[in-house]
């Protein structure tokens, strides 16, 4: 595939205890593009993206082999600074999870953790991040209000703003719109089109129409393997694998 590569995954295998959740994953994530991961529940999509920021490390008895090459290094190496990695590769989860703090404090949290204390700088970061997440106009007069008073869709965009505030390169999104209504979902999808100009995005989705709308490349997962990886148009309109064809045409899954 053409285009600059942000992350290259080579022969990745992952086990939880004796259960092998990922099997020989090979995929190159395109820079400044949206890559969608589709497939039935439990097929390894979420496990895969949690490998990209080492979130699976938090699970007991996890082990992995292979390489995840990012910025010229294998992030699976034991000497990787995981805190720094998660600053560069951040995640938005399925259910919005704002902190029980003000809108401003949610966005300022990450920069404060990384040592920024100047109020003027924090306000500049908050404004820039909230604008980047397309929510500034809705909250600019409410920055001291609790984030928990926002709607679900607003909370999810706030979580994206909180992520942007630490200036990552890669955004991982695990079904970011699955808990939202159609209008809020549309806003998230519009936002993805804007964000890919500045970020590399990997999104897990069960909604194949959403994958078709937002992504340039799609990987189809099945039982811990990538069955097919191609441009989204090709994968949906000209699948090369019978299992992919059955999934995208609704014959199973």
Main sheet characteristics: 6 strands, mixed
The CA-CA distance between the termini, in Å, is: 28 Å
Along the chain, the helix and strand elements come as EEEHEEHEHHHHEHEHEEHH
Strand portion, in percent?
A: 25-35%
Query: Which stretches of 5+ consecutive residues score pLDDT under 50?
Result: none
The rough form would be described as globular
Share of residues in helices: 25-40%
**Strand segment tally:** 10
Rg on CA atoms, Å: 18 Å
What are the main properties of this structure?
single chain, 253 residues, alpha/beta, 6-stranded mixed β-sheet, 4-stranded antiparallel β-sheet, 10 helices, 10 strands, 26% strand, globular
Characterization of this structure:
This protein has helices spanning 45-52, 82-88, 103-113, 119-132, 136-139, 152-164, 182-195, 208-214, 232-237, 242-248; strands spanning 5-16, 19-30, 34-38, 62-70, 73-74, 89-92, 170-174, 200-204, 217-222, 225-231. By secondary structure, it is α/β, with parallel strands linked by helices. Helix 3 packs across helix 4 (119-132) and helix 6 packs parallel to helix 7 (182-195). The model has no long low-confidence stretch (mean pLDDT 94).
Entry summary:
With 253 residues, the chain is of the alpha/beta class.
List the helices and strands and how they pair.
Layout: E1 5-16, E2 19-30, E3 34-38, H1 45-52, E4 62-70, E5 73-74, H2 82-88, E6 89-92, H3 103-113, H4 119-132, H5 136-139, H6 152-164, E7 170-174, H7 182-195, E8 200-204, H8 208-214, E9 217-222, E10 225-231, H9 232-237, H10 242-248
Parallel strand pairs: 3-8, 3-9, 6-7, 7-8
Antiparallel strand pairs: 1-2, 1-4, 4-5, 9-10
């Amino acid at each position: 595939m053409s285009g600059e590569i942000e992350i290259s995954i080579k022969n990745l295998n992952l086990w939880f205890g004796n259960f092998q959740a990922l099997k020989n994953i090979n995929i190159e994530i395109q820079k400044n593009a949206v890559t969608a991961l589709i497939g039935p529940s439990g097929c390894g999509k979420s496990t895969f993206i949690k490998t990209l920021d080492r979130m699976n490390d938090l699970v007991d008895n996890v082990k992995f082999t292979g390489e995840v090459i990012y910025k010229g290094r294998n992030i699976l190496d034991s000497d990787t600074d995981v805190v720094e990695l998660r600053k560069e590769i951040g995640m938005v989860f399925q259910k919005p999870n704002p902190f029980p703090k003000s809108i401003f404090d949610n966005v300022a949290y990450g920069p404060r953790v990384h040592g920024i204390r100047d109020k003027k700088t924090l306000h500049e970061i908050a404004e820039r991040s909230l604008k980047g997440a397309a929510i500034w106009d809705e909250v600019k007069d409410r920055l001291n209000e609790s984030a928990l008073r926002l709607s679900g869709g607003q909370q999810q965009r706030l979580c994206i703003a909180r992520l942007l505030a630490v200036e990552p390169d890669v955004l991982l999104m695990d079904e970011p719109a699955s808990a939202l209504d159609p209008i809020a979902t549309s806003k998230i999808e519009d936002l993805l089109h804007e964000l890919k100009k500045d970020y590399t995005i990997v999104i897990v989705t069960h909604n194949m129409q959403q994958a078709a709308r937002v992504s340039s490349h799609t990987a189809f997962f099945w039982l811990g393997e990538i069955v097919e990886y191609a441009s989204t148009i090709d994968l949906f309109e000209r699948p090369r694998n019978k299992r992919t064809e059955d999934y995208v045409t609704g014959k199973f899954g």
